Amino acid sequence: MFVTQFLSTVQLGVKSLMLQKMRSALAALGIFIGTTTVIWLVAMGEGVSYDAQQQILKLGATNIILRSIEPQSADGGEEQVKRYGLLREDYDRIMANLPTIEQAVPIRELRRELMVGGRRVDAKLVGCTSGYFELNRLRMARGRWFKQDDRGENVIVLADETARRLFPSVDPVGQKVRVESDVYTVIGQCAPRGSSAAIGGSLDARDYDFDAYTSLLTFQHRVGDQIMTRTGPGFSFKGEIIELTQITLVVSDIGQVDQTAQIVTDLLQRYHEQEDYAVVVPKELLRQAERTRTMFNVLLVVIAGISLLVGGIGIMNIMLATVTERTREIGIRRAIGAKQQDIVMQFLAETMVLTSLGGLLGVACGLLCKPIFHFTRATLSALWPDLLPPIVHSLEPRIALWSVGMSLFISLGVGLIFGVYPARRAAKMNPIEALRHE
């Protein structure tokens, strides 16, 4: 009985709307645009967020990075030799006490001038272990990376740009390079690697193409831990003693990162009298990216919700006009026995049909976000190659199912909320006055 009555009311509502096709289409258009906007904006936001998180993952979400930092309490006297930072003993203690660590790569780096004949290149000399190659996703253009047998030997691997500037026209493998007073034999040249972005506030942006690599043991023997720097004229020097610049720890599972980082921090605090180190967990950036994505989605939904709100106001305006135009019809229905509830249901049914139609069409268009975006991007790129920024070329919209359900739910809610007032106004009409209306 109820189902039959409901279907009859919906059928009557559809017939009434079809009498004013253009008006009904324009009313549904506002809901259509709002629903589509919600899905599209969230899809774009998800795409941007996904790219950002993938970039963070490439930095190593399972990594824990320890860095030596100069403590603020250190005396800055020019004659003083300061000792601070990570120690080789720290590395040994960490490896002995933490079975969750899958790999550990200690490094010591320093800016040095590399010389070949009359050519000079200011590069970053990095003393490291063989695991540094894989950890930083380096590739060899020619020659080889140093092996365990090369420990302590004067061999060096040049980064791409460093090799090109020192040896612009010859193969650098087998050639000699002078670093300060030491001479190294080049055993390999890396392929171009490019730059990496800074991580938080503890690591600097890094350009790998201007590096030179040797084994950590060779660095210790040839360069040493103590570095003296001239600070003024005459014999004014400032020195510092640093054993390790950085230790990168890799754990086997991302769920172990926080616990391992806390244990490492406790070990360093126990054996360091001053805070001359920093513990950086890139996994924290994933959490920050997730929080940013949530805030971004909320903002986009609010913006798109405004479109739905405007569409709802438009529907209420049209339904109020419809009530005025159909006053005599309302009077006749009341005269032949229709209750106020019947009138309310009739106009609510018409409103819900409009919003449902607009919402469903909006969802259908929203689900076509990816092919429409690809077609539009390809068309604009073909007509105006320089029009779109680089980020647009790499962006891939990602439909979020929750946005589909939410946009449809909001569109129906808007129809219900903004349809109640016109429906109640129609139902409260005096039947006698309504019959007199022309």
Automatic annotation (TrEMBL):
Q: Where is the ABC3 transporter permease C-terminal domain?
A: 302-431
Q: Where in the cell is it found?
A: Cell membrane
Q: Which GO terms describe its cellular component?
A: plasma membrane
Domain MacB-like periplasmic core: residue ranges = 24-262
For molecular function, the Gene Ontology terms on record are:
ATP binding; hydrolase activity; transmembrane transporter activity
- Residue ranges annotated as transmembrane are 25-43, 295-323, 344-373, 399-421
- The record's EC number reads 3.6.3.-
- Membrane topology reported for the UniProt record: Multi-pass membrane protein
**Do the record's keywords include DNA damage?**
no
The UniProt entry's sequence similarity note says: Belongs to the ABC-4 integral membrane protein family.
Q: What protein name does the entry list?
A: Macrolide export ATP-binding/permease protein MacB
Organism name? Stieleria bergensis
